Amino acid sequence: MRIIANAGGVGARVEDVDLAQPLSEGDFRTLLRALGSHGVLCAPRQSLDAAQLSRLGGRFGTLEHNVANMFHPPGHQEVMVLSNVVEDGKPVGLNDAGQGWHTDMSYSQEIALANILHARRVPRRDGRPLGATQFLDMHAAYDDLPAEVVQRLEGRSAIHDFNKFWEMMRQRPGSTRPALTEEQRRRKPPVPQPIFRTHPITGRRVLYCNPGYAMHIEGFEAAESAAMLEYLFRHQSQPKYLYSHQWTEGDVLMWDNIATTHNAVADYRADEPRYILRVQVMATLDYARLAA
Question: Which of 69, 105, 177, 200 could form a disulfide with 112 if both were Cys (CB 3.0 to 4.6 A apart)?
Fold first, then answer.
């Protein structure tokens, strides 16, 4: 296996590995270290079915089993289908494009380590791939924060709320999402997350505060909190932290949900088909020990 870093500091390509086969212990550790170092890994020219993708993801931690996942291959509720394809008048997957910047599962007490996606069909126009996935580097964003900001926020938490993101999605043109019910709100209550956390693989500090879910900073007055969150979101969105992945059929893309935020670009039409398999890995292992 070879890990080839991208130019620009974020992302790397993984070559000379068949991810449809069980990972050796050495390859698993290599991938884990590379995930911490680069944030985003792309292994091109892969061919995995749902069971193989599930096995790959399960090496890195417990897979999320979303009870509301209506779009999954038979027998694999832990695998989600992301797609804009419609067959017999019914969608075959969740159309997740255009979600805005966020970090998956930051609204949950148990956070996610990584997502792993496998592209089966990539939308194209005039031969150009569409539907890029963009990433922002939260290791670098933390490193560049002014000392006075770090001092002011040290030890503080922000409240993350699933409903914030849900409501943003409801406001998008053409959305048919209903408001969350009181029962759904009860099952997904707001949770505090540390604004700075130590990354479980690298041991380095990251900025863990994203515009998709973060609502306010505990212990700050409303105006003070709003101003600081606006500053943090503007700071982390600088172009120098950005990496945009252009998909190709066969890509397996794995990204770090602790040290990056991401956004799915909605630049393709309904007649430009997209079909991707996805698993989400929760942060349930001792990654420092495994990466040592």
Answer: 105
2-291 carries CATH number 3.60.130.10: yes
pLDDT at 177: 64
Return the bridge partners of 49, or none. none
| Range name among 63-77, 185-199, 250-264, 268-282 with the lowest pLDDT average | 63-77
Q: Which of 212, 227, 192, 226 is nearest to 260 (CA)?
A: 212
For residue 276, what are the β-bridge partners? 82, 119
Neighbour count for residue 270 (Cβ, 10 Å): 11
Q: Are 66 and 81 in contact (CB under 8 A)?
A: no
Please give the Cα distance from 269 to 84 (Å, whole number).
9
**Residue ranges of the domains in the chain?**
2-291
